Amino acid sequence: FFAGMFSRAPAGAPAPVAAPLHPLTILWGSQTGTAESLAKQAAKAASQRGFAPTIVDMAAASPAELATAENVLVITSTYGDGEPPDNAKDLWDALRAADAAALPAALRFSICALGDTNYELFCQCGKDFDEAFAKLGATRVLDRVDCDVDYDDAFAKWLDDSLNALGAGGVAATPTAPSTEAPPETLAYGKKNPFPAPILAVHNLNAEGSAKEVNHVEFSLEGSGLNYEAGDALAVVPTNDPELVGSVLALLGCDGEEAVATPVGELPLRSALTANFDLGKPAPKLLATLKVEPAATLLDVLDVLEAAPKPLPALTEIIANLKKLQPRLYSISSSPKAHENQVHLTVGAVRYEVGGRARKGVCSTFLGERGLTAGTAGVFVHANKAFRPPADPSLPMIMVGPGTGIAPFRAFLEEREATAAPGKNWLFFGDQHAATDYLYEDQIGAWQKSGLLNRVDTAFSRDQEKKVYVQDRMREAGAELWSWLSVGGHFYVCGDAKRMAKDVDTALHDIVIEHGGKTADEAADFIKALKADKRYARDVY
Ligand code: 2AM
């Protein structure tokens, strides 16, 4: 533990020859920037502990280079359907290829996987890398750690354990700088201290008769010191539906006044269930505590409490097995240059019925139903540096954003309007029906009139017998799409990762083949290069 102390020179002694620094490669795979920022944190901690860290974007890593590394930390997220982040895809493919070259046993690695237990293929990308590294012969120095959305503690422990494991054999700790009297810190607004943002407006963007409910939500950031850019996401701290809280209390046989322990101290049970605990998908340890077999029909904590044999275990035991209520991330739909001190979201309300009970998406219905009465919601900005309008304002922008996927493109277009960017703009939008689901129709129409939007293609899937999707519109306009790409255009996709983004990607490949006169392999290389040039960016979920 104090290994570093021994290498430190006693006061007054001549300075020792510096111990050689341990090289450390920190590989990150990130879709929304979390893994990237954790890689930076890891580098900082590692250099304080005698490593010479290099942060490597997986998009820039090849198996051959990797084979020359000695110590490797891998931090990667998973998104959509157990898929690697876009910047990790090529390395993931290469390491899992049937003919992948072996990695040396001298390559020692430790993997931190980021994920969300609400998804079936939890942390799949991290698991895949772990398996591939081991199979190719590298040496795992620590069991992989899979982090849920509440990753801070698990990540910190993984990092500490990993550096210990990799540094075994005596790493020289660099002496820490002498501490000066630190002024009392006022905690800035951010993840650890969300800003209670006034909710200025909430309105439904769909017309009466729509099957959808998408709300436009406006927050004030005045006085918060929070800044964002078009392309960033906003994290919103929701509260649980009071009716659901009431049903849970009833099953627990509690009136809500009982004091319980929460991550932020002792609170009355009702407040804790409202603001601190996740009443959604139950943790496996809650099922075990309540002696309930896992089943696909158990969607939330209330289902499990209902299914549990009675009498239930003690309240403290149940509470100890609840997950922490997490903030939800939404792509921001405004430009700060168009709305000073404001941030806007475009939030699709999640509602469905299972087992005779109406189910509600926690944050989407919190904002839609109770946003205005709550008056404020805790928010912080989640930067997404990989999703930005072109750095060169004269380059064309092609945006594919069906449904709530329109959100960041409203922000991009507002940004381009506010900065009088000369580049051409093309929007693909789709939804069920033109009459009820054309989100931001007025604003889009005004931009077509003003010339900001050079082209808009809509795909209203259910307005005719045969379904029409955005990728169909792309194919129809393939020649022009190719011409925009060949003059340096940027291509953006936002929305559903599971189907839409995949189909759009396929359409893009087909267009490059057909109109760019390329073979399938050449088209794949062209699109890889687009990604590497940051001209193909996706915000998909
Ligand atoms: P659908 O629900 O009528 O099938 C936004 O939700 C729009 O995306 C809807 O019009 C929806 O159509 C459409 N959509 C569904 N699956 C899609 C896919 N694989 N690719 C593109 N759009 C899709």
Quickly describe the structure.
By secondary structure, the chain is an alpha/beta fold.
Distance between the termini: 42 Å
| Main pleated-sheet profile | 6 strands, parallel
Question: What portion of the residues fall into strands of 2 or more residues?
Answer: 15-25%
Radius of gyration: 26 Å
Characteristics:
alpha/beta, 541 residues, 6-stranded parallel sheet, 19 helices, binds adenosine-2'-monophosphate, 23 strands
Description:
- The structure is a single chain.
- By secondary structure, the chain is an alpha/beta fold.
- The chain is built from 19 helices and 23 strands.
- Strands 1, 2, 3, 4, 5 and 6 form a six-stranded parallel sheet that branches. Strands 14-9-18-7-8-15 form a six-stranded antiparallel sheet.
- Helix 5 (124-135) links the parallel strand 4 (108-114) and strand 5.
- Helix 7 packs across helix 8 (269-275).
- 40% of the residues are buried.
- The structure holds adenosine-2'-monophosphate.
- Residues 402-403, 430-432, 461-462, 467, 469-471, 499-500, 503 line the site of adenosine-2'-monophosphate.
